[in-house]
Specification:
Distance between the termini: 15 Å
CATH topology of the largest domain: Spore Coat Polysaccharide Biosynthesis Protein SpsA, Chain A
Largest sheet: 7 strands, mixed
CATH architecture of the largest domain: Alpha-Beta Complex
Strand content: 5-15%
CATH class of the largest domain: Alpha Beta
Number of strands: 7
Number of helices: 10
Oligomer: single chain
Radius of gyration: 24 Å
């Protein structure tokens, strides 16, 4: 019978030989409420000394993707592996040493207290003076979209310093091929998991360059694509209904313009207003129908995810 809680700190890493050792050594091995702390490295096909330096720094487990498969894949693989290793709580942190690992106790506390299933570190992006302007704006915009899409007051949607309860880890299924940060927040809220944020320190990167954001334009494009796709997966009826009603209202404007000119104006056919209004209202109605069909499909998705959830629990001999 289990007598204590096991915490696994997972670190997705790709060519982070300069900083990975410092991150591992700074992770506290004794935390109040936790009986065992273990460190899991998910090597995403690094070509440098990331694996060697991880071993030398004291990583407990190291798994490799063989080739570079991306942050989202590595994150999900880490969750799966951590569950197999018996984790009760999982913390995800980055390999670039920008997070203060002594704050792990802070982000797991709401989980330990039974107040949250997912805890995300709020970096206070608005007030960061060492984050470049374009990256800061992209973070703020994506956070605003996530807050709207999830219906939750999210302050920092892109933070990679997070804690997950075992239940949350069992229920999350990341499908993005870019990053997990946005999708897990939307999924968490839609699956009725309790999501909280706590303020954290976010240090200036001292060694190397970001391996995730090699192109800020491509990162923004892929992030927006992930947000849009995830929102449609979990809230299709709401999304398509809002868009459809917008088109219908927009279509009424030229339609009423045609009526005005026909009965109260100087006359003339003004057929272009009538056609424009009808076309917009047609596509608005079509969007409503798509929303209904997509909602039916999303019901099947929820059933499939419940089956996967139960399969995971059965694999861990919990049912």
């Amino acid at each position: 019978m289990k007598t204590g809680l096991k915490l696994i700190v997972q670190i997705p890493a790709y060519n982070e030989e300069e900083s990975i050792g410092d991150v591992i050594r700074s992770i506290p091995r004794k935390i109040k409420g936790i009986s065992e702390v273990r460190i899991l490295i998910i090597d995403d096909g690094s070509s440098d000394k990331t694996v060697e330096n991880s071993k030398n720094a004291g990583a407990d487990y190291i798994i490799s993707n063989g080739s570079n498969k991306g942050l989202a894949f590595s994150f999900q693989r880490g969750l799966n592996e951590a569950l197999k290793l018996g984790a009760d709580i999982i913390v995800n942190t980055d390999a670039d040493n920008q997070y203060n690992q002594n704050e792990i106790s802070k982000i797991i506390k709401p989980v330990l207290d039974g107040k949250a299933d997912i805890v995300s570190g709020d970096r206070g992006v608005k007030n960061l003076d060492h984050m470049i302007w374009i990256k800061k704006r992209a973070n703020l915009v994506s956070t605003s979209i996530i807050a709207s899409a999830s219906g939750q007051n999210i302050q920092d949607a892109s933070s990679g310093f997070r804690a997950f309860s075992k239940e949350a880890a069992l229920r999350l299924f990341v499908l993005s091929n870019h990053t997990y940060t946005h999708e897990t927040l939307i999924q968490g809220v839609q699956k009725k998991l309790r999501v909280l944020e706590v303020p954290i320190e976010f240090k200036r990167r001292e060694k190397g360059e970001s391996r995730l954001i090699t192109s800020k334009w491509m990162h923004t494009k892929r992030s927006l694509s992930t947000i849009f796709r995830t929102t449609l997966m979990y809230r299709p009826l709401e999304a398509f209904t809002k868009f459809g009603l917008f088109l219908i209202v927009l279509g009424l404007i030229p339609y009423f313009r045609w009526i005005w000119f026909m009965y109260f104006g100087p006359g003339g056919d003004h057929i272009q207003s009538l056609l424009g209004g009808v076309v917009l209202m047609f596509f608005g109605g079509f969007s409503l129908i798509i929303g209904l069909l997509a909602d039916l499909t999303s019901i099947n998705r929820r059933y499939l995810e419940e089956i996967l959830y139960r399969a995971r629990k059965a694999e861990l001999n919990e049912e």
